[in-house]
Amino acid sequence: MSDPVFLKRTIMKQTLWSEHLQENRKLRIYLPPGYNEILSYPVIYCQDGEEFFNFGRIATLAGRLILEEDIEPFIIVGVEVDVAVRTQEYAPFGNRFRQYLSCFAEEIIPYIEHNYPVRRTPNERIIAGDSLGGSVSLHLALAYPALFHRVISLSGAFYPETQEILAAETDLSWLNINMVVGLQETDFKTDTGVYDFVEMNRETKALLEERGATVCYREKDGKHLWGFWQMELPESLLYFLNQ
């Protein structure tokens, strides 16, 4: 028996040399059903690209949204990361953090926009991440507001350093962020300590709203795992793709 039509998709694998990081960075690129180079598409950029495809099943979810819910076709770019240096790249106190932000905004974005027919306005780019990936996605928007206005955060790891940076902002009225956190994430152990992700996300929501950001926020039963994020990802995607 053949696979359902929504499973038939094109996933490209590309490798980009980064001058900022002085290494290759692997990308996974989802091209939607009916992909046509003469058209233009909204684009979603994902941190932890391999996990978004393998555990988040974002390509399958995208096919369902496009073919079953009549969402406009979109392209997905998953940016892979070496887990050994993930915190160093994604956390604001990491020793590769600034280089990673520069790589993403100044190398990956131009590479994709040169090679694929993605739209080039901040309202047609969505940047998404889980845990520290959600945090670095927000930091990318803060550092490059001309590129990113729309952020998806799945259980964002908004450590005190991130909250301090947010507290120093005065006007975030241009920012639109979709946040979800699991109610069973109150004592999650990370490589830098044990954190209450629920309280951390509540505090970050308040900081964002106080500075004028548009925040769509929800708390659901769930743990700090891809099983939870996979279930919540369609709602987060639809929040922006339906606008």
From TrEMBL:
Superkingdom of the organism of origin: Bacteria
Pfam family, one: Esterase
Alphabetical list of InterPro entries matching this protein: AB_hydrolase_fold, Esterase-like, Mycobacterial_A85_antigen
Identification of the protein by name: Enterochelin esterase
Source taxonomy: Bacteria, Bacillati, Bacillota, Bacilli, Bacillales
